[in-house]
Structures are given as C-alpha cells and as structure tokens.
Amino acid sequence: MKFLKSLLLMAVVLMLLSCSQSTKTDNKYVISAEIKGAPDGTDVFICYLGNPLPIVSTKIKDGRFEVSVSIDEESLQFSMILQSEGKNRETTVIMGKNDIHIEADYDSLFKRKVTGSVYENDLSDFNTYYYKNASKEYNLLDSFIQNNDKISRSEALQLLQRIDSIDNYDNELRKNYILKHPESYASLDELFSIADILPKKEFNSLFQNLDTIYNNTTTWKNLNDYYKEPKRLEAGEKYFDFTATDQYGKSRKLSEIKGRYILLEFTSLGCRGCEMAKKELALLHEKYNKNLAVISFYLDEDRNDWLNDVKKSNIKYLCLSDGKGNKSEIRKQYIYGSVPSFFLINPLGIIVKKWGGYGYPPIEVKIGKYIL
User: Fold this and answer.
1) How many alpha carbons fall within 13 Å on the CB side of residue 86?
2) Residue 289 and residue 116: Cα distance in Å, rounded?
C-alpha cells in the first residue's frame, strides 16, 4: 500500500512538473504598463515589427493596462500605440523572454521607462545620449501640429525648415551612436529605425560595423536580410514609372500626373499602420489636391479584397494595384518589405523624400515644406 501511495505521489509530482514545463514552452509573457494622464478607454495596440504575429489590443483603465503575448524569438520589437480622440501616440519597445513593465507619461510617451527587458538597458543609454541632444524637435513638432491652421504660410514654412534641420541632425546623432557603439543592442534598434531613409551603401557600411553579439535576435536577422537585398529607389533618384489598374478598372500610368507632387504609399490589408494612415491621407487629398496627388498602391493579389477595402474606407484618392502582390516588379523597384512605405515625388519626377511606417509626426509635417 505504501508502495502504491509512493507511485501515486510520484505520478502527481511528475504531472505538476509536466504542467510547469508546458507552461514555459508556451512562451507566454506579460506586458504591463502605467501611463500617467491617459484617459480611460484609450485604445492600446501592440504591433510587432518585422514579425507576422497578430496585433494585440486592449484598453487603458485607471491609467493601466496588461496584456499577454507569445514570444518564440530570442527578442521581439514592438510598437506600442495609444489611440484616443483621433490622436495617436507611439513608442517602440524591445523585450526578450521576460515579463516587462512600462512606465510613461501620456503626453511624452517617447520618454518611457521599461523594466524587465535585458535589451532596454542599452536603449536607455541611447535615449540619454539622444534626448540630451535632440529634445527640441518635439516642442517644435507640437507647435506646428497645434498651430498650423492659425499661422501664416511663411511662418509655417520657417517652422518646418527648422524641424527638417533638426530631423537631419537627429539622424546624424543616430548614425554617430551606431558607429561609436557597435556592441550595443540600441545600435541595432536605431539602424532598424532609419534603414528606410539611408542610402543602401551607407546602411551596408553601418551594418558591417556592428558586433555580432546579437545575431540571434529578430532585429539582427531582419537587418541581415535587408543587407543581402539589392538596392531600391532612393531619395534624389528618378522615380520608376509604371502602369497599374485603379479602383474604377481603368489602366493608369504614374507619369500621367503632371505639375504636382505625388505622395505614393505602398499599403496592404491587415496592416495596422496602413489602416491608421488612411484618415490623414484623406485629409491631405482634400487639403492639398491642387499641389499634391495622393496614391495608394495595394500589395494584395485579390482585386475584390482591396476594392472592398477602398469602398469600406470611402477612399476618394487614387488607388492602384497590379495584382501581383510581393512578386510585383513595381514593389521590387521601390520597397524591400515594410508597409506602409511612402515616397514623395516632385513634379520633375525626382524622389525628394522616402520613409517607412506610420506614426508620429504626421505625414503633413514630413512633407509640409514641399507642398505648402
């Protein structure tokens, strides 16, 4: 009898151990946050960067939220987007296979503090280095966003020129940090953040300089994939002309648009950033139609799918597709992979600005000095 009891006890212990082990292999981790000043009901979206995991969403209550996420990779980079009253606030966070806790102020999300992530220590060092030199830009951005309809065109242009100058300086700060700290995870993160705007030759040089200590992380793998890719169109180069079908079934050529700037967006269904960009693209189309042609190029193969999206979103600006998805030659000329991706083309057909992703600051700030 004692022997049977011992066997039963051992079986129970083994079962508990098995449950414990299966919980670990689930790779479930918690993201919790305290966001001071956030209104109750603020939408929270956790969007993974460079990873096809589904978006996790919740709402803030009493200044807090908590979500459970699954992580199979060594590290995961995600964008935390807070959406309330039509405004978006966003910051990027890196986590490994650990629970993490985020503390931030609603109106200065970029200054967030993250505990529990082995990678955020490096990022904290970078933020100290960066914000010490570049914090003025946020005040100027906020000033333009809040007052652009109240100030004169010349005042707005002066403000945008100052913002653009600081933005260029910011990118130099990032590049200098990457060069001086090749062993830091923050250097991977910052190179990822500016990869879309760097000339390919410059990106390759910075990537080759990085230490391989983090070569098992998702960010490294994404950077390495991009490093191996051929060069795409860059700012300062002539645009690639193409023919595609619009939402009305008509064949359209990009070069048909003359005498205006073109804002060409590459978009796709199921992309949170693409969905968020639609409202501002509609406003830009309405406000600057004389100077700017807004175009969304859908990277979805099924025509009915993207046409339904155009209809559901009541899009009035031009939408195009060649129905070839990621195999599209048009896509291969312009972008590596991330959507949304944006190209501002001047009336002479020269790409004057390109960037990937949608967030802060608004598109109007990025292109304002060209189209005002």
Assistant:
1) 4
2) 48
- CB atoms near residue 151 (< 10 Å): 14
pTM as predicted: 0.73
Helices (H) and strands (E) in the chain, counts: 11, 15
Whole-number Å distance between alpha carbons of 198 and 182: 18
Classify the phi-psi angles of 50: left when phi > 0, otherwise alpha if psi is within -120 to 50, otherwise beta: left
Write the single-letter amino acid at 167.
D
Distance CA 73, CA 20 (A): 20
- From first to last of the 372 residues of the chain, give the pLDDT tens digit: 333 333 333 333 333 333 333 334 468 899 999 999 999 999 999 988 666 678 899 999 999 999 999 887 777 778 899 999 878 888 888 888 889 999 999 988 878 899 998 788 787 778 777 766 666 666 777 777 777 778 888 888 888 888 888 778 888 888 999 999 999 988 998 898 899 889 999 999 999 999 999 898 888 998 999 999 999 999 999 999 999 999 999 999 999 999 999 999 999 998 888 999 999 999 999 999 999 999 999 999 999 999 999 999 999 999 999 999 989 999 999 998 779 999 999 999 999 999 998 887 889 999 999 998
